[in-house]
Each structure stands twice: as structure tokens, then as C-alpha cells.
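Friendly challenge for the regulars: who can give me the C-alpha cells for this chain first? No prize, just bragging rights.
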Amino acid sequence: MLTSKQRAYLRSLGNELEPIVQVGKGGISENLIAQVDEALEARELLKVRVLKNALVDIRDVADELAESTDADVVQVIGSIVLLYRESIENAQIELPE
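First reply, four minutes later:
Bragging rights claimed.
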């Protein structure tokens, strides 16, 4: 569980990121979850864009992706979800206490 200070720090880092995963009308599939899982292991902080033609609510997407990948939802704003999970082999982000 992230503290508010850690969440704010991650949000500041997330401002510079571009979304690399998109959720479309197909919704959340096993392939999408695998992509998010791999990206979180490589980057730790990940932006996901939910397209307008997606048939799912953005909050539901955030919760399901976080639960499926054992990640934390840092922020949901507009159509963007920001996820964080510490990398097992490649930890790069040092969270404040």
C-alpha cells in the first residue's frame, strides 16, 4: 500500500511518461494483462490509456489490472491509469518513506 507522499512522488514521475498500453473495445484480455505485467517488471511505473470505444469503466480497468498484476493504482485521471509495482530484478525507483 502506498502512502500519500509516495503516491505524490510517483505522480510527479508519471507526468513525463507516455501511455504504452491501450485498452480498446476488446476490454481486458489475458494478453493485455501479460503485456502490462511485463511492462511493469521492466519499468515499474506504467501509463495505460483507456480508449473511448472501450466498453468498460476506467475505474474497473484500473482495479482489474492492478489486481491481476499485483500492482498499485497511483492515479486515474481522464482516460489514463497510472500503475506502479516494484520490479523484482530491476528496481529503479526509490520511494520516499
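The beta strands are 21-23, 45-50, 72-77, 80-84. The mean pLDDT is 93. Your move, everyone else.
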